[in-house]
Amino acid sequence: MALDELDRFGEKIIEGFQLSDDDLRALLSLESEEDLEKLYYAARKVRNHYFGNRVFLNCFIYFSTYCKNQCAFCYYNCKNEINRYRLTKDEIKDTCETLKGAGFHMIDLTMGEDPYYYEDPERFVELVQIVKEELKLPIMISPGVMDNATLLKAREKGANFFALYQETYDTELYRKLRVGQSFDGRVNARRFAKEQGYCIEDGILTGVGNDITSTIQSLRGMKTNDPDMVRVMTFLPQEGTPLSEFREISNLSELKIISILRLMFPKCLIPASLDLEGIDGMVHRLNAGANIVTSILPSDSRLEGVANYDRDLEERDRDIKSVIRRLESMGMEPAQQDEFEAVLGC
Ligand code: SF4
To answer: Model pTM greater than 0.70?
Structure first.
């Protein structure tokens, strides 16, 4: 693919063109600002074709930061001596109360692989039920590798989306990142969920030792799952973790990969997360072809995000009103709820 094709590339994708590995390699190798701007433009063109100026809004509730795992990149890995919390049922109900009518399209219930819930998964199913009854909105669950029976029960109680990130499909890198965890176990959990009628989200990290070949492997790996949402996040070193000192000058930027995701997965939800650079970062990600804002926190919340660029900041700028104001200044707007439900097929 010649670079001068980039500005009409969007049209080819809409007509059904599929990227080859050579195309992916060429796109991942782009470096000049001019070429990258053309790539973002092509991705926006594809996004706008399918979604117009409409953006979806996902509320993030990290209800337990306990975890039994030791992911090398993660602040919440069980070896890190940090303050943790687990919301009670009443606290979750109170949080739901603050979310009523706020304008979210979906509620993301996230936890680490908390032994409290893994020892008795009914507790988790009950939470799903509570949030469904309170808010009557689509629910995404991000509970880690839950057993199939629990996934089924959660689905019956109203969970619509299952998020489980592989982080990489390069098995050597996977072993370094998701220490001691089964690669296939994650793939199979996602596959099972999809078969049971869940929408699924997969995701990869960049800037964490992935080169172009490994990134292509990951992009192709995600494709095999037939995902409904695909995410890329920049690795941010976290204090107290094995990778706290890891720094990489990578030209595989999150924005470049977001645009490539849009070209590979034209009709998918692609997140613009607030977790790394707040609302200014959201604008860049939407301009690269994303269409769902994630990691929006309940107003005045002290709940955690995942990478949490703002962990030590007094003022947090992650509430839905600030997000909507900025969307409007970009000429974009929140989608209607029925548009979101059409995407989910629920
Ligand atoms: S990424 Fe998830 S599973 Fe891994 S340590 Fe962090 S919270 Fe636990």
So the answer is: yes
